[in-house]
Write a structure and sequence with these properties.
Layout lengths: L3 H18 L3 H4 L24 E7 L4 E10 L4 E8 L4 E9 L4 E8 L4 E9 L2 E9 L5 E10 L5 E8 L7 E10 L10
Antiparallel strand pairs: 1-2, 1-10, 2-3, 3-4, 4-5, 5-6, 6-7, 7-8, 8-9, 9-10
Length: 189
């Protein structure tokens, strides 16, 4: 006859075997980490999540100009962008919250060899990123891109450029992102 220690061992082993058979496993009794407790669970990492989606993009006049797919990657620590323009230019960006410097960062590369490095953050509920890049003549110009979630679920993106240090700005792009396949084509502002 088994001793008291052996009997206790068999009882525990039996309970574990039953739990495994029922699909509960030993880990089911242990709390599992939630997404909110992940390395990038702080709210700042998700300030740009309103841009996530598969979008048809039109200019301010409602003319289709391209398609853009934005996805969360690296367990919610970053966003990737895949742009396909109607004119044949494509581009990719990587967007991430820099917790050490307390700002958003975007690196954009396109099929023309263009590179744009932007930084910034939320300003009055809009994501505003800026940086410097050369204009068509090769002179340095400030670039400012703003993304705004609209009440109807669309996103408006404006891109402005300044050659006088930000005293005046010229509109480079004014685009409206509508969920792919939706009925929105003309801005409703």
């Amino acid at each position: 006859m088994p001793g008291p220690g052996t009997r206790l061992f068999l009882e525990r082993t039996g309970r574990i075997a039953i739990a495994l058979l029922l699909g509960l496993g030993a880990g089911a009794a242990m709390p599992q980490p939630s997404a909110a407790k992940s390395a990038c669970g702080a709210p700042e990492f998700h300030q740009f999540d309103f841009w996530i989606g598969d979008w048809d993009v039109a200019d301010a006049g409602g003319k289709p100009v391209g398609r853009n797919r934005i996805a969360a990657v690296q367990k919610g620590c970053a966003l990737t962008e895949q742009w396909e323009g109607k004119g044949g230019v494509s581009g990719t960006s990587l967007n991430a919250w820099d917790a050490e410097r307390r700002r958003w960062h975007q690196t954009w590369v396109d099929s023309t060899g263009g590179l744009l490095l932007l930084e910034g953050g939320l300003v009055d509920g809009k994501m505003v990123l800026s940086g410097t890049a050369n204009d068509a003549s090769g002179a340095p110009a400030r670039q400012r891109i703003t993304w705004q979630k609209l009440p109807d679920g669309r996103v408006r993106q404006t891109w402005e450029s300044s050659v006088d240090g930000g005293a005046t700005w010229t509109m480079v792009f004014d685009g409206y992102y509508s969920p792919r396949g939706s009925i929105f084509h003309v801005p409703l502002l």
